[in-house]
Amino acid sequence: MSMNNRMWMLVALVVWATSTLAQDSNQYDQISNKRFDPATFLWYDKPAAEWNEALPVGNGRLGGMVFGNALAERIQLNEDTYWTGGPYNAVVKEGYKALPEIRQLVFKGEMKQAHNLFGRTLMGYPVEQQKYQSLANLQLTFKNTGEVTGYRRWLDLKTGVTSLQYVSGGVTYKREVFSSVPDQVIVVRITASKPGSISFQANLHGVRNQEHSNYATDYFRMDGDGKDELILTGKSADYLGVAGKMKYEARLKATTEGGTIKVTDRDLVVENANTVTLYFAAATNFVNYKDVSADQHKRVLDYLDKIKDKSYATILQAHLADYKQLFDRVVLRLPVTANAYLPTNERMQQNMTASDPQLAALAYQFGRYVLMSSSRPGTQAANLQGIWNNDMNPAWDSKYTTNINLEMNYWAVESANLSECAEPLIQLVKQLTDQGAQVAKEHYGCRGWVCHQNTDQWMVAAPMDGPAWGAFTPGGAWLCTMLWEHYLYTQDKQYLQDIYPVLKGAVDFYMDFLVPHPNGRWLVTNPSTSPENFPASPSNGPFFDEVTGGMLPGTTICAGASIDMQILSDLFGGYTQAAGILGKDAGYVSTVIAAKQRFPPPRAGKDGTLQEWADDWGQLEKEHRHASHMYGLYPGNVLSVSGTPTLIPACKAVLEQRGDGATGWSRAWKTALWARLRDGNRANKIFKRYLKEQASPQLFAKCGKPMQVDATLGMTAAISEMLVQSQEGVIDLLPALPDEWQDGEVKGIRARGAFELQFSWQTGKVNRVEVMSGQGSLCRIKPGAALQVTANGRKVKVQKAKDGTLTFPTVKGQTYILQ
């Protein structure tokens, strides 16, 4: 194809995107103002061939994956509290009695013996945890009236509505699907251009585990008036000796304009309707992690009763009002090229060779959409798959993995202006302190609370999976740094008062758990691990793990892993600041500060890389997916270009050694790390390879084959870091801008200190900034250009530093203009 022909084709696509799609006054005009915005619009010319290609909808509690098949639609459904088992406790009594011997073995270098003793005495029981479950599938089978043409499906991030349109038998058919927060239902709207053209069968069925026939007891039954409703009920499976106590009910309610509707023995049948609206409601008996006494039947009836007198238009408008007040807060504009109007899957495949900067804006906004759709106040926190899970045996149980993945899910929640969506995470951490305190006492003989590398809906906190993974004690401490970040962004002292006991409890544990290193200078964690990497320590190598019953390439057990000490540095630092702000525990704070001063400092090893362990060891796996000892660079605040410049070459050496590949979440982390190193081009290169190699067509991340939302959300955070950084008390604009992003604009991005920013740039230089002060904090900002500051048209007195930092006081609610 000639260049001219190619250009004409791209022009035609742009015309189609901005006019042909906008012709649909019932859908596209109504929800998108006749605009095809490549920063907020995903579209495809084929239906999903598999689950990983379907488009997600969610309201934090109810999730759906929409395949978009014209004649045989499938919508896979989830409810966020449907897990195996029920409330249980994994604490092992008096495990602490073996702790002194384990520590002695570690300090003597007898790591394998320490590993197996830990496995025999300190592992939780059961050793594994419970699984997040798939709830149901809605299948719609349409009468085939002719060849399908003009097919397209899309997800409009500005509305949270996924749609499809096609022509068959001379009739244009359209479908809209969304998950409503105000009304707590998933809505499917089906329309046609010719009256009486809609005929289909709907089936609602559960998901059975083929390996364990008793794993789930989903079944169908008919209830109600028997004319317009399908009902599905069931219970969770017993697993690992934990009784399945979760009960659920799901209902599909249909309304039509014209035509007929009836229910047969298993199907809801619609004939010759003009318009059909389906409402899916579901609930479980879950109250909280130790109470499953709710009435799932009454809950579902209440949801449907609430909408029985509402029109589709009313329900849609309520959804849009709720959705847009969150999503519309942030706008990101990057340079637009012709490729931006290609189908999203083609954009992703071509982005390595054809410039499409606006694809980064789309990935950024899709991450915001995923977080909004899987984490809302009152719901469970987003798990490994958010709320979208197709399996009864999901990869890694679709749990909460706290040695990177759960935290990554929420890295962007503050900077991307979705602070309310952090509430489920905050509640999760509070609930973890229950069993966490029991584990601290019984497993370690310590005060406070602790959580290891995983938890589930039942908020267990004991070590799991085996010592190679389970000996990671700072999972809860890492989560506490996320709670502190929420305060840094909001400056909400009432909130800080609320979480102070949680922070102090985590510190209490480590004040008891830390022990002197044999060198006599340091305080270190023991036992410790660096997730999930096997050190090339003396005599480490293949051995039989008594817990897993298999061979391991080595043990991860050590003392004072770098990630432990970096997380604790942030935890102790945040706690002491919180205590000072609230005027609490001054004497105790002094002892905490003294302990922190004895932490082993970050340092470079003999190979030039930042040391991952207290001892200068190499690693058994050359390009390990984790970069645990880089926590202090990102998301932590222990290492930085300006604060620890002599260690930056060692940080870069680690990233060069690990490479730019591995899993989706690993690439997201590396993108953010290179952003903190102020190398926007390297960060962008990793991001683009991730889209091509580690992301599904709808921008969900993959960890191998399985979907995980961590990288999807982590990339949103990484893009924020490329545009704004504020971890060192200064708002630094465009610290890692890629060459491809030379012109752009962002509105609504947030910085620590409760500041909301809007700024634009040309040829890589900021030309205008608006700073809204949420709490009246002192503003320190480095715009990268000589700008004057005004408020209400009046010049503001500013202190200017040699490095270009501007400092000025602010008033709560006031907007300041830099230009």
From TrEMBL:
<keyword id="KW-0732">Signal</keyword>
<dbReference type="Pfam" id="PF22124">
    <property type="entry name" value="Glyco_hydro_95_cat"/>
</dbReference>
<feature type="domain" description="Alpha fucosidase A-like C-terminal">
    <location>
        <begin position="725"/>
        <end position="818"/>
    </location>
</feature>
<dbReference type="InterPro" id="IPR013780">
    <property type="entry name" value="Glyco_hydro_b"/>
</dbReference>
<keyword id="KW-0378">Hydrolase</keyword>
<dbReference type="InterPro" id="IPR049053">
    <property type="entry name" value="AFCA-like_C"/>
</dbReference>
<dbReference type="InterPro" id="IPR054363">
    <property type="entry name" value="GH95_cat"/>
</dbReference>
<dbReference type="InterPro" id="IPR027414">
    <property type="entry name" value="GH95_N_dom"/>
</dbReference>
<dbReference type="InterPro" id="IPR012341">
    <property type="entry name" value="6hp_glycosidase-like_sf"/>
</dbReference>
<dbReference type="InterPro" id="IPR016518">
    <property type="entry name" value="Alpha-L-fucosidase"/>
</dbReference>
<protein>
    <submittedName>
        <fullName>Glycoside hydrolase family 95 protein</fullName>
    </submittedName>
</protein>
<dbReference type="GO" id="GO:0016787">
    <property type="term" value="F:hydrolase activity"/>
</dbReference>
<dbReference type="Pfam" id="PF21307">
    <property type="entry name" value="Glyco_hydro_95_C"/>
</dbReference>
<dbReference type="InterPro" id="IPR008928">
    <property type="entry name" value="6-hairpin_glycosidase_sf"/>
</dbReference>
<dbReference type="Pfam" id="PF14498">
    <property type="entry name" value="Glyco_hyd_65N_2"/>
</dbReference>
<feature type="signal peptide">
    <location>
        <begin position="1"/>
        <end position="22"/>
    </location>
</feature>
<feature type="domain" description="Glycosyl hydrolase family 95 catalytic">
    <location>
        <begin position="311"/>
        <end position="723"/>
    </location>
</feature>
<feature type="domain" description="Glycosyl hydrolase family 95 N-terminal">
    <location>
        <begin position="42"/>
        <end position="288"/>
    </location>
</feature>
